[in-house]
Amino acid sequence: MNKTVAVLALLASVLTHAAFAAGAGDVTAPIRQFIDGFNTGDVKSAYAAYETGDIVIVDEFAPHRWIGPNAPQQWAADYEKHTQAAGVSEGTVKYGAPTRTEIEGDVAYVIVPTTYLYKEHGQPRAEEGQMTFVLKVEAASWKISGWTWTGVKPHPAKSLRSVGKIRPGVH
């Protein structure tokens, strides 16, 4: 009898977590919010896409890893230093529909194809790659708890259509 009660309690807990996560809305909403905020310079919106607590970010420029509750702000400050030192301007991230989404209760793993377009000393550059996000439900909505950038070496940008990852209608 006690085993039956324990199993039922466990099942109820799992179903509650699954229902709660399902009610959290579109798992890609904070991803779009972060990237769109980055693209438009709306840091308030970009930062609001993150959960509270420790965040992990891995990116291609030094120091390559940011961890902690202020990781997004530290990453942004280091990105700004990097762009100034490298002569980078007009950075924007184009993204497509997720190529993989795994949702397990109140956590999710999402891979999004991306192209980072920018100018380096006035010359158009491109980096095709992907961003991998880890999200979790916080206050009844999905929030980013970490992300990584993985991409090819920068190269001269030809045009958005020739880049290959960007299609009409994609952000």
State mean pLDDT (0 to 100 scale): 86
Give the SSE string.
HHHEEHEEEEEEH
Helix content: 25-40%
State the shape.
globular
Query: What Rg is obtained from the alpha carbons, in whole angstroms?
Result: 19 Å
Q: Compute the number of helices.
A: 5
- Strand % is 35-45%
Briefly summarize what is shown.
With 171 residues, this protein is an alpha+beta fold. It has helices spanning 2-22, 29-40, 43-48, 71-86, 160-163; strands at 55-58, 65-68, 88-95, 100-104, 107-120, 123-138, 141-151, 155-156. The protein is globular and about 45 Å long.
Q: Describe it for me?
A:
The chain is α+β, with helices and mostly antiparallel strands and 171 residues long. The chain has 5 helices and 8 strands. Strands 1, 2, 3, 4, 5, 6, 7 and 8 form an 8-stranded mixed β-sheet that branches. The longest helix is centred in the first third of the chain and has 21 residues, at 2-22. It is globular. The termini are far apart.
List the helices and strands and how they pair.
Elements: H1 2-22, H2 29-40, H3 43-48, E1 55-58, E2 65-68, H4 71-86, E3 88-95, E4 100-104, E5 107-120, E6 123-138, E7 141-151, E8 155-156, H5 160-163
Parallel strand pairs: 1-7
Antiparallel strand pairs: 1-2, 3-5, 4-5, 5-6, 6-7, 6-8
